[in-house]
Amino acid sequence: MSSPSSPDDNTVKVGLKGPTILNNPRFNKGSAFTRDERDQLGLRGRLPFAVDTLEEQTERAYIQYQSRESDLLKNSFLASLKSQNWTLYYSLLSKHLIEMFPIVYTPTEADAIAEYSNLFRRSEGLYLSPPEFDKMEEDFLDACEGRQLDLIVVSDAEAILGIGDQGSGGIAISAAKAVIYTLTAGIDPAKALAVTLDVGTNNEKLLDNDLYVGYREKRVRGQKYDDFVDKFVGLVKKHQPNCLLHFEDFGVTNAQRLLAKYRDQLPVFNDDIQGTGAVALAALQAGIAVTKSKLADQRIIIYGSGSAGLGIARQLRDAIKLESEDGKIDDKEASSKFWLMDKHGLIKKSLEKDKIRDEIEDDFIRSEDDWGSEENDLLTVVKKVKPTVLIGTSTQAGAFTEEVVKEMSKHVDRPIIFPLSNPTKKCEATPKDLRQWSNNKALISTGSPFDPVDNPDEGKKYVVAECNNALIYPGLGLGAILSRSTKMTDSMIIAGSKRLSELAPALTKKDPNESLLPDFGDAPKVNFEIALSVIKASTKDKVSREDTMPNPENEEKLREWASRKSWEPKYMEYKYDPEGLK
Q1: pTM of the complete model
Q2: Which one of 151, 186, 568, 569 is CB 3.0 to 4.6 Å from 91, fit for a cystine?
Q3: 422 marked as binding residue
């Protein structure tokens, strides 16, 4: 729904009537249209007699949802509901957030995206393809007509949710991310736009599918690709300069370089790089607080150096630099705290050039002077480095073996171990094994949800933190949106990570057996706290453009102001006006 003119005004003027308003998910209320609204909007004979409340509609929708026998059918039901009535859709999800999150996002959304062309019924955003390059501005303006956007989520669908290249199905991941922004950060869905840059696909299964709905060509690469992306970003800068541009599931060869190219030009965020790094940083900061050590004193092995692993390394490195007491730690010194590994072992200068990805900065590449020519498997590296932190983003199930964990535990009292690979079957080690092999000392965060682990020494369970990006990226985005920041700075992200770590139950309850991150059920409250910290950092960095925002030093007024900006799934009262919203 669109926000009323004032917090006390629950009335919205609309310029739609009859079947037109019933077919518009932004304004449709279904059986909740009042008698007066039915008279004004030409709906009397088009609806059953009874007038329902939103609560009654939500209860009915939940019963319908439960009747679906598989997760994919439940996903399809929710997608259909979203296409009919946004308010009811978000009301249902909000009331059952933990239950339905895996249905509208990972893992079920990945299955739905893989079947996107086979299941296609209705468009859900903006589709842009190279053959229509010259018409891109016209199509962009048509999608944004009459709207000042707060958020654009865009994907080129090359690296979707662990299932790879999905071509035009990428629109669904953009839409899913926008949904999570609304659910956990209160972004008005009328001010969000999902976009796919359908530049072709190298997925032979899609190309051979007669029902494929996308651009049926191999992926565009090189200068043609860059020109295509550049034109799109230019349109955002020109026509929606105040909105946040969220890059999602771009391939490893493009994700980091596009972020680097555009991050100083407009507020840009890449969840796969910055969101993953930010939530991992938060969990690590909580773990470090438990061990009463400092971030700059850690020795960190990152096992798996793709987009996620590199994103985490860069985020942690930036935090080490910004949090240094004297401010004198530079990139080289901060990078020296890391040992990056991939399928070739430790990333070091003696490796053949084609075995070191171009995206890996020189400062992260270990020199032979400090390593030598020893074997560089994980166990050998652990023996030599004596790490305090071990992070897995390799998707290699069982990579963190009993021998590796026991060796690490010899040299640190509370090893911090994060097997972050998704899904569960690709996790580097299970929390149960990690606790057992470390004599119940390991501090753990995982990429997938795990049940608490028995802790026989203390007669209680150890709660495993889930490194869920949805605990932080909506709050980071909300902070940038509310402050109308010209860009998303490193210190804004780190401020959000620090606030998230402060909310960890292990710290708030002063119990190391509690989780290093808040429960996902608290995501809306947590992301609001993160947003406030981001706003304060944006002001300090002098990138905020919002004139109506209270002085961030006045915490009470800032909270009140930010709360009023939040969209909630509730019905407004409609008055018909031909010049009203459409």
Answers
A1: 0.92
A2: 569
A3: yes
